[in-house]
Amino acid sequence: MEPSLHRIQQIQFADQKQEFNKRPTKIGRRSLSRSISQSSTDSYSSAASYTDSSDDETSPRDKQQKNSKGSSDFCVKNIKQAEFGRREIEIAEQEMPALMALRKRAQGEKPLAGAKIVGCTHITAQTAVLMETLGALGAQCRWAACNIYSTLNEVAAALAESGFPVFAWKGESEDDFWWCIDRCVNVEGWQPNMILDDGGDLTHWIYKKYPNMFKKIKGIVEESVTGVHRLYQLSKAGKLCVPAMNVNDSVTKQKFDNLYCCRESILDGLKRTTDMMFGGKQVVVCGYGEVGKGCCAALKAMGSIVYVTEIDPICALQACMDGFRLVKLNEVIRQVDIVITCTGNKNVVTREHLDRMKNSCIVCNMGHSNTEIDVASLRTPELTWERVRSQVDHVIWPDGKRIVLLAEGRLLNLSCSTVPTFVLSITATTQALALIELYNAPEGRYKQDVYLLPKKMDEYVASLHLPTFDAHLTELTDEQAKYLGLNKNGPFKPNYYRY
Amino acid sequence: MEPSLHRIQQIQFADQKQEFNKRPTKIGRRSLSRSISQSSTDSYSSAASYTDSSDDETSPRDKQQKNSKGSSDFCVKNIKQAEFGRREIEIAEQEMPALMALRKRAQGEKPLAGAKIVGCTHITAQTAVLMETLGALGAQCRWAACNIYSTLNEVAAALAESGFPVFAWKGESEDDFWWCIDRCVNVEGWQPNMILDDGGDLTHWIYKKYPNMFKKIKGIVEESVTGVHRLYQLSKAGKLCVPAMNVNDSVTKQKFDNLYCCRESILDGLKRTTDMMFGGKQVVVCGYGEVGKGCCAALKAMGSIVYVTEIDPICALQACMDGFRLVKLNEVIRQVDIVITCTGNKNVVTREHLDRMKNSCIVCNMGHSNTEIDVASLRTPELTWERVRSQVDHVIWPDGKRIVLLAEGRLLNLSCSTVPTFVLSITATTQALALIELYNAPEGRYKQDVYLLPKKMDEYVASLHLPTFDAHLTELTDEQAKYLGLNKNGPFKPNYYRY
Amino acid sequence: MEPSLHRIQQIQFADQKQEFNKRPTKIGRRSLSRSISQSSTDSYSSAASYTDSSDDETSPRDKQQKNSKGSSDFCVKNIKQAEFGRREIEIAEQEMPALMALRKRAQGEKPLAGAKIVGCTHITAQTAVLMETLGALGAQCRWAACNIYSTLNEVAAALAESGFPVFAWKGESEDDFWWCIDRCVNVEGWQPNMILDDGGDLTHWIYKKYPNMFKKIKGIVEESVTGVHRLYQLSKAGKLCVPAMNVNDSVTKQKFDNLYCCRESILDGLKRTTDMMFGGKQVVVCGYGEVGKGCCAALKAMGSIVYVTEIDPICALQACMDGFRLVKLNEVIRQVDIVITCTGNKNVVTREHLDRMKNSCIVCNMGHSNTEIDVASLRTPELTWERVRSQVDHVIWPDGKRIVLLAEGRLLNLSCSTVPTFVLSITATTQALALIELYNAPEGRYKQDVYLLPKKMDEYVASLHLPTFDAHLTELTDEQAKYLGLNKNGPFKPNYYRY
Amino acid sequence: MEPSLHRIQQIQFADQKQEFNKRPTKIGRRSLSRSISQSSTDSYSSAASYTDSSDDETSPRDKQQKNSKGSSDFCVKNIKQAEFGRREIEIAEQEMPALMALRKRAQGEKPLAGAKIVGCTHITAQTAVLMETLGALGAQCRWAACNIYSTLNEVAAALAESGFPVFAWKGESEDDFWWCIDRCVNVEGWQPNMILDDGGDLTHWIYKKYPNMFKKIKGIVEESVTGVHRLYQLSKAGKLCVPAMNVNDSVTKQKFDNLYCCRESILDGLKRTTDMMFGGKQVVVCGYGEVGKGCCAALKAMGSIVYVTEIDPICALQACMDGFRLVKLNEVIRQVDIVITCTGNKNVVTREHLDRMKNSCIVCNMGHSNTEIDVASLRTPELTWERVRSQVDHVIWPDGKRIVLLAEGRLLNLSCSTVPTFVLSITATTQALALIELYNAPEGRYKQDVYLLPKKMDEYVASLHLPTFDAHLTELTDEQAKYLGLNKNGPFKPNYYRY
């Protein structure tokens, strides 16, 4: 494989091939196991748990519910929770000024008039703000959840109450998962012409079950690493039959989701699970990409002593210049208080490392998936597991040594902290703009390929978020624009600019 | 002009066209004015001044000098200063371990055996380490200075004493400048087959005067923004007749020269010129690229209150997330104690701004060239200029208000501080590797075009500098490399990775 | 009152006088209102809430419980929770190495043999480690809670199961509160000879009800600002009849509880309540004492833009030098996203300020008590209060503007985050050493006065915590000690040293 | 000696006793050696060197000079340099707003009318601003230098030209030193009634030669550690015959001179001498007092990896919480790139340590005097010393290893960087206020003892410097002042407050 391909894509390639092969061709209710995409179960397993202590055991699929306008074109846990969900949506609106601005600016022209969008994403208050924005821009939407755990039932209820056909609840079975997706696309008298996907399951479903639908579809907007990878594979195989927009690799998303967001969520995740003090603690961070950089900066600022491991000499040199000792994991594993993985790699922390850690060492993963720590190696008879809190396990060695394992090695920030609305706002705005772009693009601008968001739109997303900070952008004078050879409205940087 | 072209290149384009047009066709001694490239006068005007209080007024061109082996194939200020220069070179060697390692590793195979390199760069102790490394690798070298002020006479003397044909001294006239270059290439019985250039003047000279030389030349390695731009122009115009390597845009160079180096040199430059205290001072930094990021980080760490101006909304959003108020210059110009430009733009600080600054405000430029501050606008009769120290002018308004202008708006870090050897080591190592690559590349690998350094070599440069920090790189296991789809030896990232 | 007295003491003076005056002379069950000390209700109201969703409505006082050894000399919520509490204690032990070291070092000599300690503190896992350490050192203990909300029932159960006479549960009434204290001291055949108090309620009770007990009491160790103030008042009034040790003002406690702990808990408290993103947010911190310094440092590190208000010009100048704009609250109140009070003053944030804040502004208190924000002024008919989460209220203006008020203006870090065990370890170790010192002091060393912990013991507490960080202290040589005029074992600083 | 005395004082005690004993009773021209106080030669040896390349060999004592008004009551290097000196004074005035404010505020009332001040301090532009302020407040002044190297001749000339009887030049002999002092006090028809001293030499001289003068002297203001120590000794011995004000231990001076000033000057000193890059460098800082804290914070911010050594467990714990590994020097001595001493102790870096350092290790002292590094141990035959720059020596081991020793182990910040005017402004303002206070104090307020500056004046000095930062102090309301038990105008903190 050429070295010029993106590492992350390589990772997913390995994952996905396996997964697609495993996927059964026939889907029967409750007959499926382990066939939905990893991302559909991987995340958010706890973040939302506080909102849902429902003891109602009836499956939403077996319930008859109507919203106040008499519609029953939805399937949610409990339509009566709509009011609470509405409040959450209103709170979210206050931190998503860019979407609100889009509503205002674009409402007159209704740039999505005629758009029929089928969506499959996490269903949260922030998604609701996106959906209602798309509605305000003229679109009709139908929506399912991209993850069986992540739906906020109250928000789903609020959306259903407002007339959005939403099919999602927290704790879906795998069969429910596909049933919900199917209810979004398999509708009499309605056919989607745009897809908004997060993880690729919706796109996959349409490919498998309703390939003819693509004739009317103007484009796909995909948000996740996994989904983007699937699209590149389709494209490579010559099977992508509509243009697709990769919003995952836009600058704003990358820098925000990774660097800035992890800078905060590493602290939050560790505090909520362990109440530990950071000052003076010795920490090793495996990997000095954007995520690692964010983690290291935050912990250093809180007075931790941070060591870094890297395989890439350039990132390694950055770690040195940023003031971190670059070590091999083995060199410090006996002395550190915390081990954090952010590599995108597998088995970075092995059983051998775990055996050598000192008592009370905390082990967690901020990278991808749950492969970085070899958690499976800890499932051996001589070790005792003790669940001490939600998302916190003590793994106990025969000599009494305890390792504190967080989120069973899954992503700490998704499992044990919350993602700030502001970050989600950037993503949602990017999605909305990508939909508008693809929907309104003149024939021929986009072919049956995967596109990055045009830099100008990336810049536009950023500019929509500046008012949040009362930030005032400087405008080029004509003379300056000419001197720089730039258009006064951007784009301002070449594509390869590193930021 | 397409927005996808690099902004910096645009800048230089404007500059260069003008300059090339102005360049007279005939060069007589002392008859030339303003025709050498801007970069050849722009920098280093003071950094080296402490070593040179010579009162010897005789032009080196009129002196007869021989080194201890009897050679007179050089032209330096004073061959007797060789010993002092040798000590400086030895000191520099201690901070350039990568070149010393190259000498060791590659000496057996002499990868530059047969190479005849003509070079035109700043002549400093660090350059001397590079030249002597090239010599150790098998090359013959002839060298001129790329800047009329920047030569360290003692170092030039030491090189001449060691047998290197060096033609350079501090304080060359423009005519001297071209004469020196000519003495490097116009030699009987010796013709260069490699060019190492910094600013493009050497390349330009050969194009103008000895175009036939290019038949034997295997490649050009160019270090500067200006020179690289000239090469791209030649390439675009179909006039580039050999492969050229752009080492300016390598990751290590960019991040080190800009982010990490400016983080230190902004403090150093301000202290050496003004002895000011940073704590509590209000500073506005114009531009939040790598240079601006470095300046802001350093000043924030020293307790300054930093404001940022930007035209690019993405960089602007980064400034916000990094904790800086994003303003228009006008909003803060009355209150700030220091104004720093890092935009690559022109007239960022105008006379109007200067009029509104408060008494004692310090104004300086960390960006490019000397266009960012409209210094010319201060040359009006009602304002008094008072030189208070080397590189420090007080510009005095009729009401007594003084503005402290540093380096007359030229680059502060080149003019008023020194560049750490370690940074120069990275650049020099990159140059050496680029020369080896071009010289040894099989026919056909490189065409008559401008190339970026292959990422693998960028990573190699980085890896050669890790031992300086006693940094230990982790190696991928076979299993991990397979999982990531990477070669265990790199490259480890796709070309578009942002670091 | 002389200005040279400690500000904090002034505060409490005002509070306390009022309170003592109000205190009724006769205590009947459930007949008391507002008579317990503020500190006994002020704190911890939510931190522990996750452990206690008990629906058992029976008052512990009405239950018959026995531990496994048959003892019923205790009163806790549910003795059956002992096992869960024991696990929490074991976890805490791992972060309290100093107490564990004390157990080891001092166990042979049993320095508290014969000590009969009555204690009144928060009853948490950390307190349990302290109590069991005191036990291991030879003491007999009886214990009540110093706060009606803060008891961890499981921990109380575990202590009772281990044989400690503990009288405490979460959610005591005020009558319960005094009943529990009384049960600790009013015992047949047992009379305390040492008091460990936190808030002064226990001391107060003995003064009021059993003044004769002081004849046998060797000393009081008091931990809180409030309690210390009461003691100074007693001393001033000539009514203090035993020596008392003020452990509140020891260096380690002050710096840890305030600077280092708040540096972490401000972030934690804000995240847990609001999930906000810190990057780019504008924050005003009122007060730049140790608490304010900690808050400012943390928020600056996370990319917030921080303004500071101060009344003291020295602290103000420190804020300037540390890089914060010093403003009056009015100047920034319209633009900030967060207002944090850390002054120890009252009505720092007034209704007028609240009226001018922008929509979604977050308001919280890290200072003392709940006086800093004039919360009472928000209890007016035109404003709507909406409880959106535990500890989070939206106060809604008629025009729809919402202010996000945290913990109703009470202490954010106590209400909405947890205090790291490590900090509590320092306090607990200090308490243990103070008890040992007072109990073993030769006749005459301490008179009927309030004493600060001897600096040497402060240094000893610090030294006991260094192994946690694998920190290696340097020892003076004889020659150096002589040169400095110091004892090799300390104390190393004069009393007025500022650290 | 009791451990509760200040460490620094102990140091000086040892030094001073020796010195006083050595001091000969009779002073003949050029007959004295090693008898002036250490502080009179220790500092500033190079900072001012750039202004003085005079080749005039005539002793100022042998010159006949008159200022433009015909006065010859002064002795400076060259009265003709007055204009240049005046400009330096004007520049300094711009960064000393507090003194300028004092001139304005107090000029009407002339609080120093009648004061006859004899001063002995460093003679710099900042001192000139102080002297001219004292003059503006009504005082007559006569002045000598407290250090034989530190006088700026141009400034001395400017003061002489303005009519100040100044007796000082750069490069005085020891005999000159005392002669100058004598010329200040031994004047016909003029007798001082106030002393402003820095180092105690002036005070000492009057004690020895003109003890009767003390009858008219209202007080001494002393600035230095050494001088303060001498005063405490006199006081202890019952020989202090006037009140003295110790301005060295005021909060503003301590925190600024040490923490904030060293935070900047460590970087400046290292850059100016070595041009090194800080990023990635390993540094050990010996001592974590205010100076060490400042050094560590700065280097950490620049990307260095910092280790700390300490003898005091409390400071050690602070280092841990601030994110530094606490080590013994031996543990890291082989690996570090820089060793910085800030202990106030002696022989912290021994020959054994120096033998074990790696090649190119930089060694310097930010602490006190020149005792911290055992420089004497390097004066052995097998080691070669090579002066590579001003203040930079290479010490070369037989195997070629070089240690880079800065300022021969003297204070780096005084020797190799400059002290910001702003810091000096704080000190000068404090001195002026102390003079006013002592001069105007009602009989009996001050006895024959050493006093600390009243906290209120310390606060006043701080407040005078706030306008520099456009900092706006908040005022207490009457209600708040009452609540806190404070006077609205301060003082705001108890004396033991740690800041």
Characterization of the model:
The first copy, chain A, has 499 residues and is α/β, with parallel strands linked by helices. Chain A is globular, with a radius of gyration of 23 Å. In chain A, helix 10 (251-274) crosses helix 11 (290-301). Residues 1-35 and 42-53 of chain A have low confidence and may be disordered. Chain A has helices at 7-22, 39-42, 82-94, 97-107, 125-136, 153-161, 174-185, 201-209, 225-236, 251-274, 290-301, 313-321, 329-332, 351-356, 412-416, 421-440, 455-465, 478-484; strands at residues 116-121, 140-145, 166-167, 194-197, 219-222, 244-246, 282-286, 305-309, 325-326, 338-341, 362-365, 384-389, 392-396, 402-406, 450-452. Chain A starts with 6 loop residues before the first helix and ends in a 15-residue tail after the last helix. The longest helix of chain A is centred in the middle third of the chain and has 24 residues, at 251-274. Helices cover 39% and strands 13% of the residues of chain A. Chain A has an 8-stranded mixed sheet, with helices on one face. Chain A has a 7-stranded parallel sheet with strand order 3-2-1-4-5-6-15, with helices on both faces. Chains in contact: A-B, A-C, A-D, B-C, B-D, C-D. Chains A and B meet through helix 1, helix 10, helix 12, strand 9 and helix 17 of A and helix 1, helix 10, helix 12, strand 9 and helix 17 of B.
Give descriptors for this structure.
homotetramer, about 500 residues, alpha/beta, 8-stranded mixed β-sheet, 7-stranded parallel β-sheet, 18 helices, globular, disordered N terminus, Adenosylhomocysteinase 3 isoform X7 (chains A, B, C, D)
